[in-house]
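Model the whole thing, not chain by chain.
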Amino acid sequence: MLIRIKQKSSSGNLQNFITFASKPIKDEMKIALIAHDGKKADMVHFLSGFREQLNHSDIELVATGTTGSHIEKAGFKVQRLLSGPLGGDAQIASMAAQKELDMVIFFRDPLDKHPHEPDVQMLMRICDVHNIPLATNPAAAGLMFQQLTSRLKS
Ligand SMILES: O=C(CO)COP(=O)(O)O
């Protein structure tokens, strides 16, 4: 299925089209998980609510370093990359750019400062460039996760 949306350009002309293609049923998927310190508990809580689906052997999890250690302690299998400030966000952006990810869940803390804010912005930009579903809060992540996992072969 193809959905086309006509958009008004800054000059007011209806000339831009955004195209979404619904993805086919998948055999496996890879989800990236990142949470700022103030949101790590929310990430674990979120994942625990989907434990049954996440234990599906065809869902692979990858996370930035410290987020990953919290996720591991909660009993999930996850590939841990570098910590965010040391390049973990950049590693996930690289995976997104190479279309290796089906979804990025990034619980940002909007009330805190982050020394690696350029990396955070870069990751979100790369997701938009490559049309990778990106959820930055649990409400959005829940909706996307349910929709995505419904495409997994049972
Ligand atoms: O800083 C982060 C995201 O920008 C997350 O990194 P950690 O998971 O290593 O804390």
